[in-house]
Amino acid sequence: MTLLALKGVESGYGPMQVLWGIDLAVNAGETVILLGANSAGKTTLLRTIIGLLPCTGGTITFDGEPVGALPPDQRIRRGIAFMSELGVFPGLTIEENIRLGGYFLSAAEVRRRSARLYDLFPALAGKRRDLASSLSGGQRKMLGIAKVLVSEPKLLLMDEPSSGLAPVFVKQVVDVLKTAITGGMTLLIAEQNVAFLPLADRGYLIDGGRVRLSGTRAELEASDAVHEAYFGL
Ligand code: ATP
């Protein structure tokens, strides 16, 4: 089943158009990766899907309904979550950050879901009342993921989850995502780090705000264009 479908999507920053007619689909249960060099338009695409940037052309359909004109909070309520590179509020505690991620849920429901999340992120469990600013870079990223997972989104958009992380933490993030994917999570990830490629079922190579090619993970791995943009070869 197609969960997210983009047809001819255009977007940008005021008069500066960045995306030019993007066609893209994510099926329920799939992990799809967005590849592309710096400034290709990956972040712009994710921000347009969640509604932080206006969709100035084309259509965005989620779960069978057009969402391209809805404000971000209504897209979040329909089940789309966005994890930006920044992710967490350093001046709030771990618990408060997670509660914010589930702001539209009852306190009891947040507690129930938090208990499951602390099982998945044991490093956070003992630090519930500590400020997020006291966490290491890797732990902050884990908190950023916990904060979006608490809403149990139908689709999780992730912008460069590896950014600023040492390789050992990148591996931890990949392992946590693997667990979430096994649990049925649908993911659209913009990533430059090759460690994330094995998670993907399919992917798109974005170049100059356009889809240059799309295919299965194996097709992308075999593509010269992907090697050029992704592996820097
Ligand atoms: P990166 O890996 O560097 O984040 P990206 O593929 O995510 O790359 P985008 O951040 O989407 O690329 O940038 C696409 C284009 O939009 C670039 O030309 C960039 O300069 C421009 N751009 C990004 N953010 C803004 C902004 N806030 N205002 C104006 N232009 C922007």
Name the CATH homologous superfamily of the domain at 1-70 and 188-232.
P-loop containing nucleotide triphosphate hydrolases
CATH architecture of the domain at 1-70 and 188-232: 3-Layer(aba) Sandwich
In percent terms, what proportion of residues is strand? 25-35%
CATH topology of the domain at 1-70 and 188-232: Rossmann fold
Distance between the termini: 36 Å
Q: Number of DSSP strands?
A: 10
Uncertain stretches of 5 or more adjacent residues: none
Please state the average pLDDT score: 91
Strand order of the largest sheet: 6-7-8-3-9-10
Structural class: alpha/beta
Under CATH at level 1, the class of the domain at 1-70 and 188-232 stands as Alpha Beta
Number of helices: 9
Report Rg: 17 Å
Order of helices and strands: EEEHEEHEHHHHEHEEEHH
Global outline: globular
Which ligands accompany this protein? adenosine-5'-triphosphate
- Biggest sheet: strands, sense, closure? 6 strands, mixed
Query: Helicity range of the residues?
Result: 25-40%
**Assembly type of the shown chains?**
single chain
